[in-house]
Sequence to fold (268 residues):
Amino acid sequence: MKNESFPFNNNALKGFRALICGASKGIGKSIARSMAKAGADVIICSRNKDALDELCEELMNIGANSAKSLALDLENIEVVESAISELLNEGAIQILINNASGPPGGPLLDVELSEFETAFKRHLHAAHTITRMLVPGMEESGIGRIVNIISTSVREPIDNIGLSNTLRGSMASWSKSLSRELPACITINNILPGFTDTSRLNSLAKSISEKTGKSIPDIQQNWMSQVPIGRLIDPQETALAATFLCLPSSGGIRGISLAVDGGRMRSI
Fold:
């Protein structure tokens, strides 16, 4: 996958400002690269400022019209509001990628209420806050694209990640509800990544191992046994799906949850 050519026009997103959350690594980083290659003005945020600054240089080299980094803790809603306000003072943002690292794995009954609060702040609360702030500018621009990176667990819960299953399900319901309310020129959709080759998957396997006593190789083998293509998903594959949903020509796609999972899910 990494050696294949970029399938979209290099100016496909020229003139669009794109805010990508959780962009310092994994799927978010790959989406930032894809948006840059499509010619967007890219704004990347995460808590890791050094990684963001390094990525900005790369984004400019591969086609971004501009690239800006923003150190942001999505769990601090007041800071999020302030940072987004400053960005909007510079102009409307037409593309929003809601993406954030998931909570640790383990049985749901082991989860404390405080862990629910932290996870929901980082995901649902932050996504809702940013979306509400960006929608007026999207409507004024005549176009808006919102893509949420969640999980296949919204359709088929995954064993030993109960908190994440609960959280992702709430994000999917929030998104579907918004798809019925947003102005006609704004779409909102979800990407459901399957088992993807990221550091998140490695840390999740370690977390599940610590809480269940299962070995990491056994956990990983169990995952792969469920995937018909027999391999992990390349983050770039997920990024290209997200970019497609953000194209001006994708305005008829609204309120869907698109799985990029190698066929793992059994549901229709």
Notes: The radius of gyration is 18 Å.
